[in-house]
From TrEMBL:
Name of the protein in its database record: Proton-coupled amino acid transporter 3 isoform X2
GO CC aspect terms: vacuolar membrane
Membrane topology value: Multi-pass membrane protein
Transmembrane segments annotated in the record for this chain: 83-105, 190-209, 216-235, 255-276, 288-310, 330-359, 379-403, 434-453
Region Disordered: start-end pairs: 1-28
Source species, domain of life: Eukaryota
Keywords: Membrane, Transmembrane, Transmembrane helix
Molecular function GO terms recorded: L-amino acid transmembrane transporter activity
Signal peptide range in chain numbering: none
Cell location: Membrane
Stretches assigned to the Amino acid transporter transmembrane domain: 52-453
Coiled-coil region: none
Length: 464
């Protein structure tokens, strides 16, 4: 659910002139000051006036931005990988994600001074880093990296919509049948629930103004907090063995499933620049990331650990399916289905807004209203068909995390910082910065190739 919040925050708080990451392209990026004197540019004073967030508010935005829909399935990835390995890797990946987010923000602040631009989006930073990099032969490909970032955002968010549909339908199916297990079969089967959800999803996606939807992201944050507490309670109540008796590690396919889901659950790199652009003291973005990501890692850690420990090898996704049929847990399940239904529209809004920017050029302005709704409905139909074909939550999330966020969360930030810092401050003692960039890229490529293959293979196996 947090995956939507980051883009919602970006689009509802940024000035339209600074939201080019989703709405178009800036002018050509040109160096106005050399790196040595770039620090003299006061980008904070140059920003347009408006309500700015303090550190605590920024931490709140970061937390709701990072907690993705994968958090309701993180316990199942713990089951696939093994409890103790998953616990350790959750902390490691959380640190690595937060550091890569910091790389993006600091690279942007270096670019502000060189370009005399006060605010930038993530796609802006990606394009500008290549456009002014010290390697002349690759500067002409700056737009390519921007398009790559935009494409990754679209695949990530449209794919998340597929996951949300499956989560909603699995929850509704359990409530209707009143059983502890949820399978593809039944009367009606799960896929029929997905088809029945098509019309409601089309209707809510016809809302084109975010102000009617954004308040629900606050309810989603409250729900996640309640969910974490409920998972601890039910996990402790239903656990049958000691935590030390749980398997530490299972197998490599399970490891890659876990990595994909874990990254998907905590990644908030798309929100980093929106938060930084709206801070009163953007120089303190590092402090915000440290505090906010500590909370994010804590919630993911709790739901994953107690969800798997409490419900064991029979645990299912979303985690609420494992809760007993009491008045409280039933209310929690209903509330989750409603919240995810609304956040489906929030999640859909941003990638469609990006795609519509390019599509609408084919039509006269007088036809925009009609064709926008035609394409909105068409995209929801495609999303529903994909969810109909692949109604598996955990593997789908793992695939999205491995394919999209290995690039957006690790490879792109490393490449951006490499281009920005190559000349100043340089590679450092024994070229330690270069080694750092290479290691992060290797991890991203490793996750992208093996994680995508493993999760795609498992998704296909479970489907066909």
């Amino acid at each position: 659910m947090g995956q939507i919040s980051n883009r919602v925050f970006a689009d509802t708080t940024e000035d339209s002139s600074t939201s080019s990451g989703h709405r178009g392209h800036r002018r050509t990026f040109e160096i106005k000051s050399p790196a040595a004197s770039a620090g003299s540019y006061d980008f904070v004073s140059a920003r347009p006036p408006g309500k700015k967030t303090n550190i605590l508010e920024s931490v709140g935005h970061l937390v709701k931005s990072c907690l993705g829909g994968g958090v309701v399935a993180i316990h199942e990835s713990y089951k696939a990988c093994g409890l103790w390995t998953s616990m350790g890797l959750t902390i490691f990946i959380g640190f690595l994600i937060s550091y890569c987010m910091y790389m993006i923000a600091k690279s942007a602040q270096r670019l502000y001074g060189r370009l005399h631009i006060a605010t930038m989006s993530y796609p802006d930073v990606a394009e500008a880093a290549i456009a002014i990099c010290p390697f002349p032969k690759i500067r002409k490909y700056s737009k390519c990296l921007r398009y790559a970032v935009d494409f990754t955002i679209c695949v990530d968010l449209f794919g998340s919509c597929c996951v949300y549909q499956v989560v909603i339908c699995r929850t509704i199916k359990q409530l209707v049948e009143g059983t502890d297990t949820v399978t593809l079969e039944g009367n009606p089967p799960l896929r029929m629930y997905i088809l029945m959800l098509l019309v409601p999803c089309i209707l809510i996606c016809m809302i084109t103004t975010l102000k009617y939807l954004a308040p629900f992201s606050i309810l989603a944050d409250i729900f996640l907090l309640i969910l974490a507490i409920a998972t601890i309670y039910y996990g402790c109540t239903f656990s049958k063995v000691s935590m030390f008796e749980m398997p530490a590690f299972k197998n490599m396919p399970g490891l890659f499933e876990f990595l994909g889901v874990c990254v998907f659950s905590m990644e908030g790199v798309g929100a980093t620049m929106a938060i930084e652009n709206n801070m009163k003291e953007p120089q303190k973005i590092g402090r915000v990331l440290a505090l906010g990501m500590s909370v994010v890692v804590g919630i993911v850690f709790v739901i994953g650990t107690f969800g798997y420990w409490g419900f064991g090898e029979d645990s299912k996704s979303p985690v609420t399916l494992n809760f007993p049929f009491t008045a409280f847990s039933i209310a929690l399940k209903v509330f989750m289905a409603v919240i995810i239904y609304v956040t489906f529209a929030l999640n859909f809004w941003v990638p469609f807004d990006l795609v519509w920017y390019y599509i609408k050029k084919r039509y006269p302005p007088t036809k925009y209203w009609f064709w926008e709704r035609v394409y909105r409905g068409s995209f929801v139909i495609v999303i529903t068909l994909i969810a109909f074909i692949f109604p598996n939550v955990s593997s789908f999330i793992g695939l999205l995390g491995s394919f999209c966020l290995s690039n957006m969360g690790f490879i792109y930030p490393a490449c951006i910082e490499l281009c920005v810092e190559w000349d100043s401050p340089g590679l450092g003692f024994m070229k330690w910065r270069l080694i750092k960039w290479i290691l992060i890229c290797i991890f991203g490529v490793f996750l992208g190739i093996f994680g995508t293959y493993t999760n795609a293979k498992e998704l296909i196996r479970q489907t066909f």
